[in-house]
Amino acid sequence: MPEQVENSEVKSPTYDISKFRLKRILHNNSVRKSIALLGTFPDLSETDDAIVVFEKNAYQESDVSTSKESAAKPSYFSAELKVDTEFINNIYGSFQVVPSPDLCGVKSTVIYPATDKHVEKYSICQKYLIRETPDLYESTTLPYINLSQFSLEWVYNILEHKKETERIVFEDNDPETGFILLPDLKWDGRNVENLYLLGIVHKHNIKSLRDLNGNHLPLLRNMRQSAKDAISKRYGLNPNQLRMYFHYQPSFYHLHVHINPIRNDAPGIWCEKSHMLDTVISNLELLPDFYQRATLPFVLYEGNKLLDLYEEKITVRSVAAPRSDSKEQEKVPAVQSAIEGFSDGDLEERECKRIKLATPEPKEAEVPAQACA
Ligand code: M7G
Fold it and tell me: What is the position in ligand 1's atom list of the atom closest to the CA of 111?
């Protein structure tokens, strides 16, 4: 457990969420029941952008309890339930119900002031898969990361016990193998069903998976074991029901592991973004410089400047016509992939399918040899 430190948590924000003025909707995800909004807090500034993300909370089993023992807790099935009948047809009934205000909480995240990079991150747009060779990492991704990345201030605040101190679930303060385990910003903190924790390493200068080598195995093994033990102790979760993984590319370039229960489809668990901690450890056990030698795929969003830098080196947006020996086929011009706007989160899955279909193997001549490996 963390040592007692002075609590410097700021409980009241400088802004009043109710005074938010909407400029535009960045993303409306009907599957996740979340919406990301761009706007301002005019009371504070007409020009500084703010992002507000609302996400409806998952149900807790106690929310639907009808037992007398849990009568003290709010439940849907109480006199406070307002029921609006839509229709009743034979044995089927359809209603809109409004439960007690205690059950209507909405998890809200505010980023203020938000940068263009935050706006880009929360906007829904076309995505592309990049196969990043070690050469492409050195020549294109790394210089971009060094110049343009989100501030790590919030990470250092946690590691230095300046913020979120009360939220720390476990800490090992060894400078080489230690880490802090605490709830991710995305977790509503109410429901273990959708538990989402982060393990942030104390060691600096491990930007991402790419920097990991065999020397980091003690750190990774310690995170795996100690986080599982701490979660089992605090939340009663079976360690074999936990998903522990890294994102590549991450948004924040200070190594951290994401942890959530495998039965919950947490945001960002897609195969094109996640690398299981177990697999990473195994790869490094087999080959200590695996991540310096591997081609690592990752996703880039339309609007990200790194995408333009990649476009200068390899073909990303425009896709070549299918290869064929026939002369007739060779004349077919490259087709421009459609860039469409999306307003509905349902489309995320469809969009992934479209990317798979719209991104055939690039011609060998168009990419460095290793890029197609
Ligand atoms: P990532 O893989 O770098 O980026 O993960 P992405 O998953 O957002 O693409 C960073 C993780 O840190 C995310 O899961 C965020 O929700 C979480 N996070 C971000 N911020 C700014 C904070 C914060 O201030 N506190 C906590 N506890 N988590 C944060």
Answer: 21
Based on C-alpha coordinates, what's the Rg of the chain? 24
* pLDDT score of 370 more than 60: no
> 256 an active-site residue?
yes
Q: How many Å separate Cα 52 from the centre of its chain?
A: 16
The pLDDT assigned to 10 comes to 54
Is pLDDT above 70 for 155? yes
Out of 51, 123, 166, 184, give the residue to mutate to test ligand 1, the one with the largest number of ligand atoms within 8 Å of its CB. 184
Place of tokens 């909480």: 105
Cα–Cα dist 355/359, whole Å:
6
CA 185 to centroid of ligand 1, rounded, Å: 6
Q: 143: closest CA among 312, 346, 257?
A: 312
The amino acid occupying position 265 is: D
Model's pTM, two decimal places?
Answer: 0.76
Between the two ends of the chain, the Cα-to-Cα distance in Å is 45
